[in-house]
Amino acid sequence: MSGLAATWNRIADSDLFYSFTRSKLVMLSALITVIFFAAAYGAPLFAPHNPFDLASLNLSDGFKPPFWEEGGDLTFLFGTDDQGRDILSTIMYGARTSLSVGFLAVIFAMVLGIGLGLIAGYLGGAVDSFIMRVADVQLSFPAILIAMLVDGVTRSVLGSDKHSEAALTVLIVSIGLSYWVQYARTVRGSVLVEKNKEYVQAARVIGLPGPLIAIRHVLPNVMGPVLVIATINLALAVITEATLSFLGVGLPPTQPSLGTLINTGQQFLLSGEWWITIFPGGALAILVLSVNLLGDWLRDALNPKLR
Prior knowledge:
The mean pLDDT is 82. This protein has a single domain, classed as MetI-like fold, CATH 1.10.3720.10. The radius of gyration is 23 Å and the shape is globular. The protein starts with a helix and ends in a 6-residue tail after the last helix. By secondary structure, the chain is mostly helical. The chain has helices spanning 2-12, 15-22, 24-41, 43-46, 87-123, 125-139, 143-158, 160-165, 167-194, 198-205, 210-218, 223-247, 258-265, 275-301. The chain is built from 14 helices and no strands. InterPro entries: BP-dependent_transpt_permease, MetI-like, MetI-like_sf, OppC_N.
C-alpha cells in the first residue's frame, strides 16, 4: 500500500495532474470519455437489450419513439428502429465497434509512422528523402480518400464475399494507412534533433548498434508529441470509420458501428422517425468532441513553452 500511496503522491504533485484538475472542461471531457468507454465495452452487461439477438427481437416494437413522446415506452428509452431494436443498446454496441476500430487503427498508424520516422531521421540521406517524398505525396490527398482507395483495392482483390468477412481488418488497415504520415514527420523531426546530442554520441562510442540506439535511447525522448497526435487521431479515426460505414464502404450492416447506425437511420429521417439517426449521430459528436478536448489539453500540458 505504501508503494501505491507513493505513486499516487507523485501523480498528484505532477504538473500534468495540476493542469488537469485546473480545467473543469477537461475534467468533464474526461468523465464523458470514460462513460463512453465503460458503456461501450460493458455493453453486454449494461445494455438494456441485446439488439443483435434475433430471437429477442419483435417487429411489433418497431418505430417506437423515445419514452417522453406519445407512444413511447420506458422499456426503450431512446425508442426503437424499424426492426424493433433498442436505440440505446445499439449505440452502446456500435460505440464499442467504432472505438475498437479507432484504437487499432491508431496503433497501426503509430507503429508504421514511428518506425519509418526513426529510419528516416536516423539514417538520413536517400532513405530519408524517399520516405519523406512518399509522405508528401500522401499529404496531398484527404485521409478519407486514401481509406476509400485502400478499401476499394482490397475489395477488388478479395471479392465481395471475402471482403465482407475481413471488413474489420481492412477498415483498420485503411484508416491506419491514412494517418501514419503525421507520426513519421513528427518523429523524424525529433530524431534529427536528438541524434546529435551527447547521450547518443556516447552510445555510439561504446559500440551500441544504430537500431538499438534509436529504439532504446532516441525513441523515449520523442514520445511526448506522439501521444498528443495519437489522442487527437483517435477522434479522427472514429470519424473516418463512421464516414466510411455511412457511405457503405466500411463495415457491413451486420457489424454494428455508429456509422452503420446513422446510415440506417437516415433512411427514415424524413418520414418522422428522427430518433433512429439523431441519437447515434449525437453520441458520435459528443464522443469525438470529448476526445478532441482531451487531445488539445494534452498538447498544451506537454508543451514546455506554455508552462
